[in-house]
Design brief:
This protein has 17 helices and twelve strands. Strand 10 and strand 11 form a beta hairpin. The protein has three domains: about 120 residues, no CATH class; about 240 residues, TIM Barrel (Alpha-Beta Barrel); about 30 residues, no CATH class. It is α/β, with parallel strands linked by helices. The strands form two sheets. It has a nine-stranded mixed β-sheet with strand order 1-2-3-4-5-6-7-8-9. A three-stranded antiparallel β-sheet has the order 10-11-12, with no helix packed on it.
């Protein structure tokens, strides 16, 4: 584990392969066994026919045709992993150049061409929120509080990659590959472990554990990103979990609608829908991610009866103002994705430059109340090793006899009579 106070670029860690090498070692068969390489989802092909679309512009930027660009496997095979690759499509800041070179042995860099195509110009005073999330930066080398496993997940794993914290549900980490390796990821530690992506032994033991524990009613399939596998591999996993009589709810945690929307095809959604009730939690952090392509991905899910919830992370320079969060939550509802959680960022190593004060989050939540429909307001959460703790502005000012003294959303004092009898 790295020093909890300072992340040194020369910390002793085993050498890491690039995401492409990890993919070749672990996941090639999983990526190819279901559909042909030239599979062209019609819903995205229609978008790409508009030359001004993000899809068409992305294909041009990466010097390929639209039909190739909408194939999700192409994006996984062409992840941007080095400064040299990134510099072919944009001008890198010095901090980003240094980040690629100084952090490659600490946490893999990997960004899909699609997500690279959402990046804009970035300055010190006006950073690009997409770049902050995905490109390594030299600021990651210093962190006073960061640790490798802030939620102590390994201590709550009765079998490998099954996190059993709450009595009735588990997180089942079946995947290791991701379309984008988010710089604030709280599971960075898994980067050092090989062979975790849909590993047959790990999956078998996890399913056996779930089957042996009748208290487990809810299984969250996560990773990594569990949608980075073939349709056949995902359906096989779903079928095995759904066959367990006491499992009522199956959820997926995936960022593919945000970072690789071409993966979330109508075909995949139809497979998921066979195993209802199935839910999907995704992870939009800023309005710039709410693209027409992302909208199609979410629509594919909800049109097949799969509710989509969003779990954002409060990040400095990304979404840490009221207006930014308002625009994100409003845009999510327009896409039929429900704002579910807003996480205060974990104290994971290398992320101090992205962590705002909790007071910032509380003020954002206070301003949202009364200014946007309650359906659009996520629960602000601090995630601890013992569970999620909701935090909120305190609207209860005091008690007076049988009356409760409150502050309303306009900041006015209100006496609610007779509620303390």
């Amino acid at each position: 584990m790295l020093d909890p106070l300072i992340i040194h670029s020369n910390s002793a860690r085993p050498p890491l392969g690039t995401p492409r090498e990890v993919q070749e070692f672990q996941g090639t068969a999983l990526l190819q066994e279901s559909e042909p390489e030239n599979f062209k989802p019609e819903e995205f092909l229609r978008l790409g026919q508009d030359p001004t679309s993000i899809t068409a512009r992305g294909a041009k930027l990466f010097k390929t045709d639209v039909e190739t660009y909408i194939n999700w496997r192409w994006h996984m095979k062409h992840q941007v992993t080095t400064a040299a690759e990134a510099a072919k499509v944009m001008d890198l800041e010095i901090a980003e150049q240094q980040g690629f070179s100084e952090l490659d042995h600490i946490f893999n860099a990997g960004v899909t061409p699609y997500y690279m195509g959402l990046m804009g110009a970035s300055t010190k005073d006006s950073p690009c929120p997409i770049r902050l999330q995905a490109l390594p930066r030299s600021e990651e080398l210093s962190d006073r509080y960061g640790i490798a496993d802030p939620l102590l997940e390994k201590e709550h794993s009765p079998v490998k990659e099954v996190v059993h914290l709450y009595p009735d549900r588990v997180a089942f980490c079946v995947a290791q590959l991701c379309p984008v390796y988010c710089r604030y990821c709280y599971r960075k530690r898994r980067d050092n472990e090989a062979g975790l992506h849909f590993n047959r032994t790990i999956v078998d033991r996890g399913i056996a554990y779930i089957a042996s524990n009748p208290a487990i009613r809810d299984v969250l399939i996560t990773g990594g990103d569990p949608f980075i596998a073939s349709d056949a591999a995902i359906e096989n996993l779903l079928a095995r979990i759904r066959a367990i009589p006491h499992v009522e709810i199956i959820r997926f945690g995936t960022r593919t609608p945000v970072t690789l929307p071409y993966r979330v095809t109508a075909k995949l959604a139809s497979i998921l829908a066979k195993y209802h009730p199935v839910y999907v939690n995704t992870h939009f952090n800023c309005p710039e991610e709410l693209t027409p392509e992302a909208k199609v991905a979410v629509e594919n899910l909800v049109n097949h009866g799969i509710p989509v919830g969003n779990q954002a992370v409060l990040l400095k320079g990304v979404n840490d103002t009221y207006q930014r969060m308002f625009d994100l939550c409003r845009g999510l509802l327009m896409m039929r994705a429900r704002p579910y959680y807003l996480f205060h960022p974990h104290n994971v190593e290398g992320t101090e430059h992205l962590r705002p004060s909790v007071d910032v989050g509380l003020e954002i939540m206070r301003k949202l109340r009364g200014n946007i429909t309650g359906f659009a307001i996520p629960t602000y959460i601090i995630d601890t090793p013992s569970g999620k703790v909701p935090i909120t502005h305190n609207y209860v000012l005091g008690r007076d006899g049988e009356d409760l003294i409150l502050e309303n959303p306009r900041g006015e004092i209100w006496r609610e009579k007779g509620v303390l009898t």
